[in-house]
Design goal:
The protein has 173 residues and is an alpha/beta fold. It has four helices and eight strands, in the order ββββαββααββα. The protein has a four-stranded mixed sheet with strand order 1-2-5-6. A two-stranded antiparallel ribbon has the order 3-4. The longest helix is centred in the first third of the chain and has 18 residues, at 37-54.
C-alpha cells in the first residue's frame, strides 16, 4: 500500500487458520511458517529498499523513505472472540490486520492507519513519498525488461512483476 504522507506499507498476508504455538512457531495448519510472518514482512521491507537503491533514477536515499511492515491474517481474529489467536510479545497487535478489520472499507482503512501510526510514531521518521518517488515505483513495477522484483531464499516465493502489477491494477500495462 502507498500513502504519500505515510509512505509504503509492506503487508505480509497469511490465509487460513494461522496460529502460534507455545514455542513461538507459526503455522497455518500442519506445516510451520519459516520464516514467521513478521520476519517475512521485515525482510520484504529490506528487499524493497535494496531494489529502490538499485534504481538509477531513484530520487534520494531509499533509507530515508517511509517504509514499514505489517501482517494480515484475513481468516482469523487476534482481538478476541471464538477464533482469536495469541501473538506473543514480538508480534505487535498494532501491525496486524485481521478478520475483524476486513468487515468494511472503513475498518480496513483504520487498520492500515493503525499500522502506519505504530511505526511512524510522531511522523519524524523518514520522508513522505514525493511524486518522483511514485513515478520511480511505477516504472519499476511496469518495466517489461525486469520480470523479477525479488527472489526470496525459497525460489517458490519469487515475486514477479506481472503478479504485482495485476494485484495493484496498474493502468497501461
Amino acid at each position: 500500500m502507498r500513502d504519500l504522507d505515510n509512505g509504503l506499507l509492506i503487508i505480509e498476508v497469511k490465509g487460513g487458520q494461522i496460529r502460534r504455538d507455545g514455542t513461538g512457531r507459526w503455522s497455518p495448519g500442519e506445516h510451520q511458517l519459516n520464516p514467521p510472518p513478521f520476519e517475512q514482512a521485515e525482510r520484504s521491507k529490506h528487499a524493497l529498499r535494496e531494489k529502490l537503491a538499485s534504481l538509477p533514477d531513484w530520487p534520494g536515499n531509499p533509507d530515508d523513505v517511509r517504509i514499514g511492515p505489517a501482517v494480515a491474517f484475513p481468516d482469523v481474529s487476534v482481538r478476541g472472540g471464538p477464533r482469536a489467536i495469541g501473538l506473543g510479545p514480538d508480534a505487535p497487535l498494532e501491525l496486524v490486520i485481521d478478520q475483524s478489520d476486513l468487515t468494511s472499507v472503513e475498518d480496513a482503512r483504520q487498520a492500515v492507519d493503525r499500522a502506519y501510526d505504530y511505526w511512524l510514531g510522531d511522523r519524524r521518521r523518514g520522508s513522505p513519498l514525493s511524486p518522483r518517488h511514485l513515478e520511480s515505483l511505477y516504472l519499476m513495477l511496469t518495466d517489461p525488461n525486469d520480470d523479477v522484483l525479488y527472489v526470496f531464499h525459497d525460489p517458490e516465493q519469487t515475486l514477479y512483476r506481472d503478479d504485482v502489477v495485476d494485484t495493484l491494477g496498474l493502468p497501461g500495462y
